[in-house]
Amino acid sequence: MHQRLLAALVCAAVLSTSAAHAPSAGDRDAAPDIPRLAADRDAAQEIPRLTDDRGRVLTLRGWNVEDKTHRGEAALSAITERHFRDLRAQGFGFARLLVFWDDLEPERGHYSEAYLRKIERVLGWARKHRIQVLIDAHQDVFGPVFGHRGIPRWATRTDGLPFTPHPDDWFAEYFEPAVQRAFTHLYEDPDLRRAQADMWRVLAGRFEDHPAVIGYDLINEPMGEIAPGEDLPTAARRIEREQLTPMYNRLADAVRSADDDNWIFFEPTPIVGEGVPTGLGRIEDPKAVYAPHFYNTAMEAGADYDPSKGWIEAYESAVTLYPRQYRVPVVVGEWGPLNNSLPHMGRFYRDALAFLNRYGSGWAGYVWCYGGGYCAVDDEGRFRTNKDQTAAPYAPAVAGRISAETFEPDSATYRLAYRARGGPTEISVPPRPGGWRIDVTGRARNATPLLPADRATTARVHARPGAQVTVRVTPRTPR
To answer: Which of 58, 167, 200, 323 has the fewest CB atoms within 10 Å, i.e. is most exposed?
Structure first.
């Protein structure tokens, strides 16, 4: 059976089970009140949050930034300063930057200084526009041997197994025997283990002190080899338990040999997107971040969002088990459908953002580019249909313990309640006709209660330690 079809069947089975317990459409549409939000936030507090060096609670919101097309001398040339200037102009402060091992180390042991300088140039733009960057070691269908990007040719071993391209369904290529065997060799061959660790020592050693860098995503959407007689969920949990967990611990050690400060992000296999809990074990690092992706097979294949299927509820149930068990923060590294203009996609963005913001420390949409397809904005830099919902007020940094937090899309009202611990709390707002008003109650002050309409702005709230503070952000009526 086609393995992607199997994934869809797994999804249908999981969601049909969860749908019986899903809230009604009327319940989901109702605007939440503060007591309910407080309860939701208390539950979410079981999952730790990202923090900065001052102990402030961080929320990352932004987009992936990539250039999968250009290689060698032209690598990363599709990424320009405009990407980061426009991200900041809409109020985003986070970017997941795709980099490729095949460009960094085209020959074993020969690292491209030119490529490192290109990454450095991109990070310079990010710093200029106050964007925090996650460096992602990206792979799609393993790498160049199979017509994609990621693992170098010299590190690709297939044992002569067959590979047939699927130009109309590239994800199906992950289930070709040669691709699956290549993953097995990467995870198990001692020399390839060392090579992958050495690659991360180079990256972490180069960028450990760069002020734009917040962390490292060790490998994008890892896959593996399905054993005879295994179904896809069973194989995924085995790969995560027996191969990915030790790999992540090896790579975390490699990063820590060069950088003891930035966060380390690690991913399950993509099957988690079908509501299947991960089999990953503990990653032995004090600054580890669980970084699943948020895609649905049916929607990726072109289907519209169907709230009655309970997919989002099933995903949330599955994806929050690991961080609660192992006490690690969650940042969703990729999300967003290919066709964002179908009839129910407005509802999808509303539902998805509500759940993403409920339990996690942030997210990166896929992808900040200019045009069609997955692109967030068109050629002129205007949000494409429904993607404007991603730009909303939020708190990038809270100096205290959060007790309630919400954004109500209908009224465009953001509320935050926290007990202060000292230091500035930051409130970010996107541009909006008429601008914004910020009201603060409690032993706190905000020097800029009225925020301009023509640009994204960050306000700072200062409060006495121990004070109970409430922040309310509301849109002003255009004159």
So the answer is: 167
pLDDT for the residue 478: 85
Q: What is the mean pLDDT of residues 153-182?
A: 97
Per residue in 137-149, pLDDT (tens digit) is: 999 999 999 999 9
* Rounded Cα–Cα distance for residues 200 and 453 (Å): 43
Beta bridge partners of 437: 450, 474
DSSP for 366-426, written as a single string: S---BSSTT-SB-TTSPBPTTGGGG---EEEEESEEEEEEEEETTTTEEEEEEEE-SSEEE
DSSP 273-319: GGTPPP-------TTEEE--EE--HHHHTTPPP-GGG-HHHHHHHHH
Flag whether the pTM goes above 0.90: yes
- Over 90: is that where the pLDDT of 8 sits? no
Q: How many residues does the chain have?
A: 479
CB contact set of 376 (below 8 Å; sequence gap of 6+): 63, 336, 365, 367, 368, 369, 383, 384, 387, 390
Radius of gyration of the chain (CA): 22
